[in-house]
Amino acid sequence: MEGENDRQNFLEYWRQFGNIANINGMMLNANASLIEKNDRHDVCLLLPDLKGKTVLDAGAGIGRFTAELAERAEKVYASDFISEYVTKLQELSAEALKNGKIIDVTVADATCLSYPENSYFLVFTNWLFMYFNNTECVRFTVNALKWLEEGGYFKLRESCSEPSTRRVGNRNETSLHAAVQSNPTEYRFSSVYLKLIEAARYVDSNNQKWKFEIEICGSIPTYILNGNTWRQVQLIAKKVKADDNDVVLSQDELKNLMTNDWIMEQKKTDSIVDGRVQYFADKIFANELSNIDMTNTESISSIFVFQSSFNPWYKRIFPFSLASNKYCHVWTNEGNRELFRCSLTSANEERNIGMFFTYSKDNVFNALDYVKKRNFLLNSFLAIDYLNNHEVNFIESFNNIASQDAKILLLESFSNEDEKNLKLSKLNKQYTVKCVTENVHNEVKNVHQDEEIVCDVTSKKWMLINVNH
Protein backbone atom coordinates (compact mmCIF):
# COMPACT_ATOMS: atom_id res chain seq x y z
CA MET A 1 0.00 0.00 0.00
CA GLU A 2 1.26 3.46 -0.88
CA GLY A 3 2.00 5.83 1.94
CA GLU A 4 4.60 6.67 4.54
CA ASN A 5 6.73 3.60 3.85
CA ASP A 6 7.11 4.53 0.17
CA ARG A 7 8.34 8.00 1.02
CA GLN A 8 10.76 6.68 3.62
CA ASN A 9 12.28 4.31 1.05
CA PHE A 10 12.88 7.18 -1.36
CA LEU A 11 14.34 9.40 1.37
CA GLU A 12 16.75 6.68 2.49
CA TYR A 13 17.69 5.94 -1.12
CA TRP A 14 18.75 9.53 -1.81
CA ARG A 15 20.50 10.01 1.52
CA GLN A 16 22.95 7.34 0.34
CA PHE A 17 24.18 9.87 -2.21
CA GLY A 18 24.16 12.95 0.03
CA ASN A 19 27.95 12.82 0.34
CA ILE A 20 28.25 12.96 -3.46
CA ALA A 21 26.98 16.51 -3.82
CA ASN A 22 28.24 16.95 -7.36
CA ILE A 23 27.20 16.32 -10.97
CA ASN A 24 27.98 12.59 -10.75
CA GLY A 25 25.83 12.24 -7.65
CA MET A 26 22.96 14.19 -9.20
CA MET A 27 22.91 12.12 -12.38
CA LEU A 28 23.88 8.87 -10.57
CA ASN A 29 26.44 8.46 -13.32
CA ALA A 30 30.20 8.19 -12.85
CA ASN A 31 30.73 9.70 -16.31
CA ALA A 32 28.22 12.51 -15.90
CA SER A 33 30.76 15.21 -16.72
CA LEU A 34 30.89 13.89 -20.30
CA ILE A 35 27.20 14.50 -20.95
CA GLU A 36 25.98 16.99 -18.33
CA LYS A 37 26.37 20.17 -20.39
CA ASN A 38 24.61 18.72 -23.44
CA ASP A 39 21.89 17.15 -21.30
CA ARG A 40 21.23 20.49 -19.62
CA HIS A 41 21.08 22.18 -23.03
CA ASP A 42 18.54 19.59 -24.26
CA VAL A 43 16.30 20.12 -21.25
CA CYS A 44 16.47 23.92 -21.35
CA LEU A 45 15.71 23.95 -25.08
CA LEU A 46 12.04 23.37 -24.25
CA LEU A 47 11.78 26.24 -21.78
CA PRO A 48 9.58 29.25 -22.59
CA ASP A 49 10.79 32.84 -22.32
CA LEU A 50 11.30 33.46 -18.58
CA LYS A 51 12.17 37.16 -18.62
CA GLY A 52 10.52 38.82 -15.62
CA LYS A 53 8.95 35.54 -14.50
CA THR A 54 8.90 33.57 -11.24
CA VAL A 55 9.97 29.91 -11.29
CA LEU A 56 9.70 26.95 -8.92
CA ASP A 57 12.55 24.43 -9.17
CA ALA A 58 11.16 21.50 -7.15
CA GLY A 59 13.63 18.85 -6.03
CA ALA A 60 16.47 21.03 -7.26
CA GLY A 61 19.33 18.91 -5.90
CA ILE A 62 22.63 20.80 -6.11
CA GLY A 63 21.09 23.24 -8.58
CA ARG A 64 22.06 21.76 -11.95
CA PHE A 65 19.29 23.82 -13.52
CA THR A 66 18.69 26.39 -10.77
CA ALA A 67 21.48 28.76 -11.79
CA GLU A 68 20.42 28.67 -15.44
CA LEU A 69 16.79 29.28 -14.51
CA ALA A 70 17.90 32.24 -12.38
CA GLU A 71 19.81 33.69 -15.33
CA ARG A 72 16.62 33.67 -17.39
CA ALA A 73 13.96 34.49 -14.78
CA GLU A 74 13.21 37.27 -12.30
CA LYS A 75 13.21 34.94 -9.29
CA VAL A 76 13.65 31.22 -8.64
CA TYR A 77 12.36 29.29 -5.64
CA ALA A 78 14.48 26.15 -5.22
CA SER A 79 13.78 23.32 -2.79
CA ASP A 80 15.34 20.02 -1.72
CA PHE A 81 15.37 17.81 1.38
CA ILE A 82 19.01 16.59 1.40
CA SER A 83 21.10 18.86 3.64
CA GLU A 84 24.24 18.59 1.48
CA TYR A 85 22.25 19.63 -1.60
CA VAL A 86 20.64 22.53 0.25
CA THR A 87 24.11 23.79 1.21
CA LYS A 88 25.05 23.82 -2.49
CA LEU A 89 21.83 25.67 -3.32
CA GLN A 90 22.56 28.28 -0.67
CA GLU A 91 26.02 28.79 -2.16
CA LEU A 92 24.40 29.26 -5.58
CA SER A 93 21.96 31.74 -4.07
CA ALA A 94 24.76 33.83 -2.57
CA GLU A 95 26.65 33.86 -5.86
CA ALA A 96 23.51 34.75 -7.84
CA LEU A 97 22.77 37.67 -5.52
CA LYS A 98 26.13 39.23 -6.45
CA ASN A 99 24.85 39.37 -10.03
CA GLY A 100 21.46 40.76 -9.09
CA LYS A 101 19.67 37.42 -9.41
CA ILE A 102 17.40 35.94 -6.75
CA ILE A 103 17.36 32.27 -5.73
CA ASP A 104 15.17 31.62 -2.68
CA VAL A 105 16.15 28.28 -1.09
CA THR A 106 13.70 26.16 0.89
CA VAL A 107 14.48 22.97 2.83
CA ALA A 108 11.50 20.78 1.94
CA ASP A 109 10.42 17.46 0.50
CA ALA A 110 8.78 18.15 -2.87
CA THR A 111 5.74 16.12 -1.76
CA CYS A 112 5.10 18.65 1.02
CA LEU A 113 5.30 21.89 -0.96
CA SER A 114 2.35 24.25 -0.67
CA TYR A 115 1.78 27.56 -2.45
CA PRO A 116 -1.17 29.84 -3.26
CA GLU A 117 -2.89 29.89 -6.63
CA ASN A 118 -1.09 31.68 -9.48
CA SER A 119 2.30 31.79 -7.73
CA TYR A 120 4.54 30.76 -10.62
CA PHE A 121 4.99 31.03 -14.37
CA LEU A 122 7.03 27.80 -14.53
CA VAL A 123 7.05 24.71 -12.33
CA PHE A 124 10.26 22.90 -13.25
CA THR A 125 11.08 19.27 -12.39
CA ASN A 126 13.88 16.98 -13.48
CA TRP A 127 13.88 13.31 -12.44
CA LEU A 128 11.34 13.98 -9.69
CA PHE A 129 8.22 11.88 -10.37
CA MET A 130 10.29 8.69 -10.58
CA TYR A 131 10.87 9.16 -6.84
CA PHE A 132 7.16 9.65 -6.12
CA ASN A 133 4.53 6.99 -5.65
CA ASN A 134 1.38 7.30 -7.77
CA THR A 135 -0.54 9.25 -5.13
CA GLU A 136 2.28 11.80 -4.89
CA CYS A 137 2.51 12.11 -8.69
CA VAL A 138 -1.19 12.91 -8.89
CA ARG A 139 -1.10 15.38 -6.01
CA PHE A 140 1.91 17.26 -7.40
CA THR A 141 0.39 17.45 -10.90
CA VAL A 142 -2.88 18.90 -9.62
CA ASN A 143 -0.95 21.27 -7.34
CA ALA A 144 1.15 22.43 -10.30
CA LEU A 145 -2.09 23.44 -12.02
CA LYS A 146 -3.00 25.36 -8.87
CA TRP A 147 0.38 27.05 -8.42
CA LEU A 148 0.78 28.15 -12.04
CA GLU A 149 -0.64 31.36 -13.44
CA GLU A 150 -2.77 31.23 -16.58
CA GLY A 151 -0.52 30.46 -19.54
CA GLY A 152 2.20 29.17 -17.23
CA TYR A 153 4.20 26.02 -17.90
CA PHE A 154 4.94 22.67 -16.26
CA LYS A 155 8.28 21.06 -17.23
CA LEU A 156 8.74 17.33 -16.61
CA ARG A 157 11.67 15.00 -17.35
CA GLU A 158 11.76 11.33 -16.35
CA SER A 159 13.46 8.00 -16.97
CA CYS A 160 10.74 5.82 -18.47
CA SER A 161 10.35 2.02 -18.55
CA GLU A 162 13.94 1.27 -17.48
CA PRO A 163 17.14 2.80 -16.02
CA SER A 164 19.46 4.57 -18.44
CA THR A 165 22.72 3.39 -16.86
CA ARG A 166 24.09 -0.09 -16.26
CA ARG A 167 24.78 -1.80 -12.95
CA VAL A 168 28.06 -2.20 -11.03
CA GLY A 169 29.84 -5.41 -12.00
CA ASN A 170 29.78 -4.64 -15.71
CA ARG A 171 33.02 -3.07 -16.87
CA ASN A 172 31.02 -0.57 -18.92
CA GLU A 173 29.15 0.45 -15.79
CA THR A 174 28.41 4.12 -15.22
CA SER A 175 25.72 3.90 -12.52
CA LEU A 176 26.60 4.81 -8.94
CA HIS A 177 24.20 2.41 -7.21
CA ALA A 178 25.40 -1.14 -6.71
CA ALA A 179 23.42 -4.14 -7.87
CA VAL A 180 22.81 -5.29 -4.28
CA GLN A 181 21.22 -2.01 -3.25
CA SER A 182 17.47 -1.64 -3.26
CA ASN A 183 16.34 0.80 -5.93
CA PRO A 184 12.78 2.06 -5.28
CA THR A 185 12.77 4.21 -8.42
CA GLU A 186 9.54 4.05 -10.47
CA TYR A 187 10.31 3.63 -14.18
CA ARG A 188 6.80 4.27 -15.50
CA PHE A 189 5.56 4.09 -19.07
CA SER A 190 5.85 7.46 -20.82
CA SER A 191 2.18 7.10 -21.81
CA VAL A 192 1.18 7.04 -18.13
CA TYR A 193 2.82 10.43 -17.54
CA LEU A 194 1.21 11.84 -20.68
CA LYS A 195 -2.23 10.63 -19.64
CA LEU A 196 -1.87 11.93 -16.09
CA ILE A 197 -0.91 15.41 -17.23
CA GLU A 198 -3.67 15.54 -19.84
CA ALA A 199 -6.34 14.12 -17.51
CA ALA A 200 -5.62 16.32 -14.47
CA ARG A 201 -8.02 19.19 -13.75
CA TYR A 202 -8.06 21.92 -11.13
CA VAL A 203 -11.04 24.05 -10.10
CA ASP A 204 -9.84 27.38 -8.70
CA SER A 205 -11.35 29.69 -6.09
CA ASN A 206 -13.44 31.37 -8.82
CA ASN A 207 -14.84 27.99 -9.94
CA GLN A 208 -12.82 28.10 -13.18
CA LYS A 209 -11.60 24.73 -14.47
CA TRP A 210 -8.00 24.40 -15.63
CA LYS A 211 -6.03 21.73 -17.47
CA PHE A 212 -2.65 21.12 -19.05
CA GLU A 213 -2.07 21.14 -22.79
CA ILE A 214 1.11 19.26 -23.68
CA GLU A 215 2.97 21.25 -26.31
CA ILE A 216 5.71 18.72 -27.03
CA CYS A 217 7.20 15.56 -25.55
CA GLY A 218 10.31 13.79 -26.76
CA SER A 219 13.44 11.83 -25.95
CA ILE A 220 16.56 13.59 -24.66
CA PRO A 221 18.96 13.78 -27.66
CA THR A 222 22.11 13.48 -25.53
CA TYR A 223 21.00 10.10 -24.20
CA ILE A 224 20.22 8.90 -27.71
CA LEU A 225 23.68 9.85 -28.94
CA ASN A 226 25.62 8.73 -25.86
CA GLY A 227 23.55 5.92 -24.41
CA ASN A 228 21.47 4.51 -27.26
CA THR A 229 18.35 5.03 -25.17
CA TRP A 230 15.19 6.84 -26.20
CA ARG A 231 13.56 6.41 -22.79
CA GLN A 232 14.86 9.59 -21.22
CA VAL A 233 11.70 11.60 -21.87
CA GLN A 234 10.86 15.26 -21.33
CA LEU A 235 7.80 17.40 -21.96
CA ILE A 236 6.50 20.92 -21.59
CA ALA A 237 2.81 21.54 -20.83
CA LYS A 238 0.86 24.80 -20.71
CA LYS A 239 -1.89 25.71 -18.22
CA VAL A 240 -5.06 26.60 -20.15
CA LYS A 241 -8.76 26.92 -19.39
CA ALA A 242 -10.69 23.66 -19.51
CA ASP A 243 -14.17 23.30 -20.97
CA ASP A 244 -17.01 23.89 -18.54
CA ASN A 245 -18.30 20.36 -19.17
CA ASP A 246 -14.91 18.68 -18.58
CA VAL A 247 -15.05 15.88 -16.03
CA VAL A 248 -12.93 16.63 -12.97
CA LEU A 249 -11.57 13.31 -11.75
CA SER A 250 -10.71 13.01 -8.08
CA GLN A 251 -7.12 12.40 -7.09
CA ASP A 252 -8.06 8.87 -6.01
CA GLU A 253 -9.57 8.22 -9.44
CA LEU A 254 -6.45 9.49 -11.18
CA LYS A 255 -4.27 7.38 -8.92
CA ASN A 256 -6.31 4.26 -9.72
CA LEU A 257 -6.01 4.98 -13.45
CA MET A 258 -2.22 5.29 -13.07
CA THR A 259 -2.04 2.07 -11.09
CA ASN A 260 -4.31 -0.07 -13.26
CA ASP A 261 -6.14 1.10 -16.39
CA TRP A 262 -3.41 3.12 -18.09
CA ILE A 263 -0.85 0.36 -17.62
CA MET A 264 -3.24 -2.24 -19.03
CA GLU A 265 -4.04 0.00 -22.02
CA GLN A 266 -0.34 0.33 -22.78
CA LYS A 267 0.28 -3.40 -22.47
CA LYS A 268 -2.64 -4.09 -24.80
CA THR A 269 -1.15 -1.78 -27.43
CA ASP A 270 2.28 -3.33 -26.87
CA SER A 271 0.85 -6.78 -27.60
CA ILE A 272 -0.42 -5.55 -30.98
CA VAL A 273 2.44 -3.33 -32.13
CA ASP A 274 5.69 -4.45 -30.48
CA GLY A 275 7.86 -6.40 -32.90
CA ARG A 276 6.03 -5.13 -35.97
CA VAL A 277 8.52 -3.89 -38.56
CA GLN A 278 6.32 -3.13 -41.56
CA TYR A 279 3.11 -1.29 -42.45
CA PHE A 280 1.22 -1.18 -45.73
CA ALA A 281 2.22 2.41 -46.55
CA ASP A 282 5.97 2.00 -46.06
CA LYS A 283 6.94 1.11 -49.62
CA ILE A 284 4.60 3.71 -51.11
CA PHE A 285 6.47 6.49 -49.35
CA ALA A 286 9.92 4.91 -49.66
CA ASN A 287 9.58 4.78 -53.44
CA GLU A 288 8.66 8.47 -53.58
CA LEU A 289 11.64 9.41 -51.43
CA SER A 290 14.17 7.31 -53.31
CA ASN A 291 15.51 10.28 -55.28
CA ILE A 292 16.20 12.52 -52.27
CA ASP A 293 19.88 13.41 -51.89
CA MET A 294 20.98 12.02 -48.53
CA THR A 295 24.67 12.77 -48.92
CA ASN A 296 24.54 16.55 -48.48
CA THR A 297 27.01 17.28 -45.70
CA GLU A 298 26.17 20.98 -45.33
CA SER A 299 23.45 20.31 -42.75
CA ILE A 300 21.52 17.45 -41.19
CA SER A 301 18.23 16.98 -43.01
CA SER A 302 15.27 14.97 -41.84
CA ILE A 303 12.22 13.16 -43.14
CA PHE A 304 9.26 14.31 -41.03
CA VAL A 305 6.54 11.71 -40.36
CA PHE A 306 3.22 12.90 -38.95
CA GLN A 307 1.19 10.10 -37.30
CA SER A 308 -2.37 11.29 -36.61
CA SER A 309 -4.14 10.27 -33.41
CA PHE A 310 -7.33 9.85 -35.46
CA ASN A 311 -5.87 6.94 -37.42
CA PRO A 312 -6.02 3.32 -36.23
CA TRP A 313 -2.68 1.76 -35.34
CA TYR A 314 -2.20 0.12 -38.74
CA LYS A 315 -2.44 3.43 -40.61
CA ARG A 316 1.11 4.22 -39.60
CA ILE A 317 4.49 4.58 -41.27
CA PHE A 318 7.30 2.47 -39.80
CA PRO A 319 10.06 5.11 -39.69
CA PHE A 320 12.85 2.55 -39.68
CA SER A 321 11.76 1.47 -43.16
CA LEU A 322 12.75 4.89 -44.51
CA ALA A 323 16.32 5.37 -45.66
CA SER A 324 18.49 7.26 -43.20
CA ASN A 325 22.16 7.93 -42.59
CA LYS A 326 24.32 10.38 -40.64
CA TYR A 327 23.21 13.18 -42.97
CA CYS A 328 19.50 12.35 -43.09
CA HIS A 329 17.44 11.52 -40.02
CA VAL A 330 13.80 10.52 -39.59
CA TRP A 331 11.71 12.60 -37.19
CA THR A 332 8.35 11.06 -36.25
CA ASN A 333 5.65 12.97 -34.40
CA GLU A 334 3.14 10.56 -32.87
CA GLY A 335 -0.34 11.69 -31.85
CA ASN A 336 -1.20 8.57 -29.85
CA ARG A 337 0.27 8.22 -26.35
CA GLU A 338 0.53 4.43 -26.32
CA LEU A 339 1.99 4.30 -29.83
CA PHE A 340 4.53 6.97 -28.84
CA ARG A 341 5.76 4.65 -26.12
CA CYS A 342 5.85 1.76 -28.63
CA SER A 343 7.99 3.93 -30.91
CA LEU A 344 10.51 4.42 -28.12
CA THR A 345 10.58 0.65 -27.57
CA SER A 346 11.32 0.08 -31.26
CA ALA A 347 14.01 2.76 -31.17
CA ASN A 348 15.72 1.12 -28.20
CA GLU A 349 15.73 -2.17 -30.09
CA GLU A 350 16.84 -0.79 -33.46
CA ARG A 351 19.47 1.57 -31.94
CA ASN A 352 19.53 3.87 -34.95
CA ILE A 353 20.61 7.29 -33.65
CA GLY A 354 19.17 8.89 -36.79
CA MET A 355 15.66 8.32 -35.41
CA PHE A 356 13.88 10.89 -33.26
CA PHE A 357 10.36 10.71 -31.82
CA THR A 358 8.04 13.32 -30.36
CA TYR A 359 4.48 13.36 -29.05
CA SER A 360 2.23 16.30 -29.75
CA LYS A 361 -1.42 15.44 -30.03
CA ASP A 362 -2.09 16.42 -33.64
CA ASN A 363 -0.47 19.84 -33.25
CA VAL A 364 1.84 19.99 -36.23
CA PHE A 365 2.94 23.55 -35.35
CA ASN A 366 4.34 22.53 -31.96
CA ALA A 367 6.20 19.65 -33.56
CA LEU A 368 7.67 21.82 -36.33
CA ASP A 369 8.64 24.48 -33.79
CA TYR A 370 10.70 21.91 -31.90
CA VAL A 371 12.29 20.76 -35.16
CA LYS A 372 13.30 24.39 -35.72
CA LYS A 373 14.80 24.65 -32.22
CA ARG A 374 16.87 21.54 -32.94
CA ASN A 375 18.20 23.20 -36.14
CA PHE A 376 17.00 20.39 -38.40
CA LEU A 377 16.35 20.94 -42.10
CA LEU A 378 13.35 18.99 -43.38
CA ASN A 379 13.42 17.33 -46.79
CA SER A 380 9.90 15.87 -46.64
CA PHE A 381 6.60 15.72 -44.76
CA LEU A 382 4.72 12.40 -44.80
CA ALA A 383 1.24 11.59 -43.50
CA ILE A 384 -1.64 9.14 -44.01
CA ASP A 385 -5.25 10.39 -44.26
CA TYR A 386 -4.11 13.78 -43.00
CA LEU A 387 -6.97 15.53 -44.79
CA ASN A 388 -9.60 13.54 -42.88
CA ASN A 389 -9.18 15.66 -39.76
CA HIS A 390 -6.50 18.30 -40.35
CA GLU A 391 -6.03 21.47 -42.34
CA VAL A 392 -3.02 22.07 -44.57
CA ASN A 393 -2.18 25.32 -42.78
CA PHE A 394 1.36 24.44 -41.75
CA ILE A 395 3.13 25.13 -45.05
CA GLU A 396 4.61 28.49 -44.03
CA SER A 397 6.04 26.93 -40.86
CA PHE A 398 7.28 23.98 -42.92
CA ASN A 399 8.95 26.23 -45.50
CA ASN A 400 10.92 28.00 -42.76
CA ILE A 401 12.75 24.76 -41.94
CA ALA A 402 12.57 22.86 -45.25
CA SER A 403 14.97 22.52 -48.14
CA GLN A 404 13.96 24.13 -51.42
CA ASP A 405 13.12 20.80 -53.06
CA ALA A 406 11.40 19.26 -50.01
CA LYS A 407 8.28 17.18 -50.58
CA ILE A 408 4.90 17.19 -48.83
CA LEU A 409 3.40 13.75 -49.49
CA LEU A 410 -0.11 12.86 -48.31
CA LEU A 411 -1.44 9.33 -48.78
CA GLU A 412 -5.22 9.75 -48.79
CA SER A 413 -8.13 7.31 -49.00
CA PHE A 414 -11.54 8.05 -50.52
CA SER A 415 -14.73 6.15 -51.30
CA ASN A 416 -15.98 8.14 -54.29
CA GLU A 417 -15.19 11.14 -56.46
CA ASP A 418 -17.10 13.53 -54.19
CA GLU A 419 -14.99 12.54 -51.19
CA LYS A 420 -11.84 12.78 -53.29
CA ASN A 421 -12.72 16.27 -54.50
CA LEU A 422 -13.66 17.38 -50.99
CA LYS A 423 -10.21 16.40 -49.76
CA LEU A 424 -8.46 18.09 -52.66
CA SER A 425 -10.48 21.26 -52.07
CA LYS A 426 -8.73 21.64 -48.70
CA LEU A 427 -5.44 22.27 -50.48
CA ASN A 428 -4.70 25.94 -51.08
CA LYS A 429 -1.52 25.17 -52.99
CA GLN A 430 -0.86 23.52 -56.32
CA TYR A 431 -0.46 19.77 -56.22
CA THR A 432 -0.11 16.63 -58.28
CA VAL A 433 -2.08 13.44 -57.70
CA LYS A 434 -1.05 9.87 -58.37
CA CYS A 435 -3.44 6.91 -58.15
CA VAL A 436 -1.88 4.25 -55.89
CA THR A 437 -4.96 2.13 -55.14
CA GLU A 438 -3.55 -1.07 -56.60
CA ASN A 439 -0.21 -0.59 -54.82
CA VAL A 440 -1.87 0.01 -51.46
CA HIS A 441 -4.24 -2.94 -51.83
CA ASN A 442 -1.37 -5.26 -52.72
CA GLU A 443 0.77 -4.01 -49.85
CA VAL A 444 -1.90 -4.38 -47.18
CA LYS A 445 -2.52 -7.97 -48.29
CA ASN A 446 1.20 -8.71 -48.10
CA VAL A 447 1.77 -7.04 -44.74
CA HIS A 448 -1.37 -7.65 -42.68
CA GLN A 449 -3.05 -10.97 -41.94
CA ASP A 450 -6.05 -9.51 -40.14
CA GLU A 451 -9.09 -9.69 -42.45
CA GLU A 452 -10.74 -6.64 -40.88
CA ILE A 453 -7.67 -4.51 -41.55
CA VAL A 454 -7.38 -5.76 -45.13
CA CYS A 455 -11.09 -5.17 -45.68
CA ASP A 456 -10.93 -1.64 -44.28
CA VAL A 457 -7.97 -0.59 -46.42
CA THR A 458 -9.11 -2.32 -49.63
CA SER A 459 -12.64 -0.91 -49.34
CA LYS A 460 -11.20 2.50 -50.28
CA LYS A 461 -9.40 3.97 -53.24
CA TRP A 462 -6.08 5.66 -52.56
CA MET A 463 -4.21 8.65 -53.96
CA LEU A 464 -0.77 10.06 -53.24
CA ILE A 465 -0.76 13.86 -53.23
CA ASN A 466 2.44 15.83 -53.74
CA VAL A 467 1.72 19.35 -52.47
CA ASN A 468 3.75 22.18 -53.98
CA HIS A 469 5.06 24.64 -51.42
UniProtKB/TrEMBL annotation:
| UniProt entry tagged with the keyword Transferase | yes
Q: Which keywords, in A-to-Z order, does the entry hold?
A: Transferase
Molecular function terms in GO for this entry?
phosphoethanolamine N-methyltransferase activity
Domain Methyltransferase residue range list: 55-152
What SUPFAM superfamilies is this protein classified in?
Answer: S-adenosyl-L-methionine-dependent methyltransferases
Cytoplasm in keyword set: no
- Reported EC number(s) for this entry are 2.1.1.103
Catalyzed reactions per annotation: phosphoethanolamine + S-adenosyl-L-methionine = N-methylethanolamine phosphate + S-adenosyl-L-homocysteine + H(+)
Q: Could you tell me which CDD domains the record lists for this protein? A: AdoMet_MTases
Q: What protein name is recorded for this chain? A: phosphoethanolamine N-methyltransferase
Q: Which organism is it from?
A: Strongyloides stercoralis (Threadworm)
